[in-house]
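Why run this: before we spend reagent on co-expression, it is cheaper to look at a predicted model of the complex and decide which construct boundaries make sense. The entries below are exactly what would go into the expression plan.
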Amino acid sequence: MTAPMLAVFKLASCDGCQLTLLDCEDELLALAGQVEIAHFLEASSNTRPGPYDLTLVEGSITTSADAEHIRKIRAQSRFLVTIGACATAGGIQALRNFADVEEFRRTVYARPDYIDTLATSTPVSAHVDVDFELRGCPIDRGQLLEVITAFLTGRKPDVPNHSVCFECKRRGTVCVTVAHGTPCLGPVTHAGCGAICPAYGRGCYGCFGPSGSVNLPALIPLLHRDGMDDRDTERFLHTFNAATFAEIEEKM
Amino acid sequence: MTDSPAISVLDREGLDALVKTLTTEGRTVVGPTVRDGAVVLSELASADQLPFGWGTRVEAGHYRLIPREDGAAFAHTSGPQSWKTFLHPQREKLWSADRGADGQLSLTAEQPEQPSYAFLGVRPCDLRAIAIQDRVLTGGHYQDSGYRERRSGAFLIAAECTEPGATCFCVSMGGGPAADNGFDLALTEVVDEAGHRFLVRVGSEAGAEVLSHVPRCQADVETQTAARRAVDAARDRMGRAMPPVSLRTLMGQSLEADRWDDVADRCLTCGNCTMVCPTCFCTTTEEVTDLTGDHAERWQRWDSCFDLDFSYLHGGPVRSSPRSRYRQWLTHKLSTWYDQFDSSGCVGCGRCVTWCPVGIDITEEASALHDELEARLRLQEQAEQQERTEKVQ
Ligand code: SF4
Ligand code: SF4
Ligand code: SF4
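The model came back. Tokens follow.
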């Protein structure tokens, strides 16, 4: 049996999520023993053509070239997993979805005509079918390994859908909202990071996007109580997963 | 049996000696201590780490530490953890499996040596919560062997309540601030002009044995009276109360109540209430494999009825609405728990009220359900009466 071929591609993104793969230092050799890393430009310029068994895609679609590229990637991939907030939710660059991109182009660039960009930043799933979405900005190393391991053994990855509060309590952190009055997005945010921020006394920033069960209208009064005005609240919700939180706000 | 009198008095040095004795016996002493703006439960190296001089001010969804002039160590209310953190840990390995070179599978049950705990400062409500988890996890056909071992080796030192909090309601759940049984030693803290001391009662032979190594005095009448007064006074100072009705029946008659929609609007379904609850025991299992697929492990971890995946059957979750999930939690806690385990699942510790970020209050919800039911029954009765009158006419 030949080893499954693994490919890593990037679209509009910062490279941080694919770096997580290189960051799997202790497991990297074992991984290289199980898969053939066929395309991973951050690690090697030596690439092999598809088709690929498992493709990890980082980044969102912000240009027509990206949109074309992701269709080609999909066509070459048996199992396609998007990694990170950009690929699963449009990323921080989806802030453009709420603004006038034309105006940015005119104001920011000396030669606006050089800039070929779409009016929105969209997740991969808005363009092609995705087999699994791994959240986070950046993704969690353990969860990435879990997704790859699950793929190799043909099982469902164990990536819970619940809130960051679950992880907070399991790790024994004192709730920053209840005990310190600190605004925290944990109750509406997808678990996965291990509740790092509250463990350091800060509120959750929502890096993993909305959890499987979100009640924003119940949380927003708490953010106000703890000192955030409407503008602060909007900014708090409009970061790496701006588009997905905004979608929920629209339904409110 | 040793020469320990049934009731004696320790001073602060005596408390130190108690911790030292337990540590010397090879026990892991766990007790309250201050961390990150709260009284948490943690391994203690000495009695100095107890929260001397710290009290708490709590409300629904609100918790603050407040300094106390009297230097008391056990004058705080429930923090975000309970003893289940140690007896029923959030993640535990159950077994592992390996595939040998010949393709044969071998299974290894996880049987680590369990720590021998001594819990210092167990509140009476938490003694009752431990008794409930005992019934749930070791009482029936399916026993949790890890829990059983940790529990049977645990030495419990109760601390009676003299400072109930605004979210406490143990009295209305049939409990109270006094420790009656289920402990090895029970302390009642007394701080007055005569000094800072702890009345100690012995609850088991093991308790008497440990106490025999600790310098102490025979209990004087003044200390005994002061201790009893403080605990009696605490009984009348509960911050909250459940409605004085059969909650079991109330829940059974409230399945279709409108109130569930109201609470579902406020509930974040964040799961905090179940995680902090000292009786909530639900777990799920996760299967872990390594990259080669030749090594697998099964782990048990805390789960919650607020998790969508908790009721996931093929195709989707059975309890998809927040309404159905909150209703499940309250109905199980206060009603169907009786069917399963012969008691209520709530001891009135107030943790779920304090540590719910939006301050949803189980006593307020139960009262609202009670009011709604009363109103419904009244209407029904009026309608029936009218019907009867019409028939007569
Ligand atoms: S600190 Fe934030 S994530 Fe943690 S329990 Fe509190 S609200 Fe939830
Ligand atoms: S009742 Fe409170 S703690 Fe429990 S799930 Fe709802 S919001 Fe969270
Ligand atoms: S339901 Fe709430 S008050 Fe009752 S035992 Fe659990 S945490 Fe304590």
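The beta strands of chain A are 5-10, 36-40, 52-58, 77-83, 132-134. Chain A has a mean pLDDT of 95. Bring this page to Monday's planning discussion.
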